[in-house]
């Protein structure tokens, strides 16, 4: 099967129905042992230093991994994607556009997905058949999520990893299904590890994945990963069709739609606080203003850039924030 790169989560059901193997370029970039080489390639080709590291990483990953075709999301994701795909076109990469309409009207979402299906010459029936198959695998990630926030057996990092990987099913549906089943069996056999502080992670998936193990040093754990969970489509099984499934996907649409789901998860998971991760030079950092006004919960905003490890300043801020939360817990007992 021909590989096709993704700049973010898109209706992979369409691509698989068309005979492609989806490859999330974000995942290739950040999991590389030498991830910085992708950023260096982009900067050598003229990408400015004052640009999101993810965009540069996607560019480098695309060029270095024999990706000749990509889907570029023109609306509903990064504002720099349009510029990115223009440069990729110059490099001979074939680009297929897709948009999550800003209107967030069901009819508009349906029209965009129909255009996408027509672009790849696949039928609605075939796409729905693939969707049902994928949603059975997505249900496995829901089980891992429940083993995180209900059973306290899965770690925050495992929760992050297995859900974020569903953007492309690790480019191998059958193997990834087996991976998830094995992980569930392993996690179920553990003893619960109940954290004193239950954290939620919101914002784009982090460059600094060590944040999960770091907070565990201070009796805290992430029991909610917002965007990663949305990549796994936890409500997909309830959707009548692919149009409804991608209409109910919170990540690409307006922040008020996203806030409704956040409030629900804060209550259901009994969160004590939220860490809001934003990427340097990203327009989504401005969301922090709205989120702090809308959510009645302590929120700490941290920012990542090129490093894939937490810096000393961010570690100090996280430690101080968790210490404050622990003090509040103790005060409530008195």
From TrEMBL:
Q: Name one GO molecular function term.
A: hydro-lyase activity
Known InterPro entries for this protein? FldB/FldC_alpha/beta (IPR010327)
A Pfam family annotated for this chain is: HGD-D
Instruction: Read off the Gene3D superfamilies from this record.
Output: 3.40.50.11890, 3.40.50.11900
Identify the cofactor(s).
[4Fe-4S] cluster
Reply yes or no: does the keyword Iron-sulfur apply.
Answer: yes
Q: Which UniProt keywords apply?
A: Iron, Iron-sulfur, Metal-binding
Q: Which family does it belong to?
A: Belongs to the FldB/FldC dehydratase alpha/beta subunit family.
Report the protein name in the record.
2-hydroxyglutaryl-CoA dehydratase, D-component
Source species of the chain: Clostridium acetireducens DSM 10703
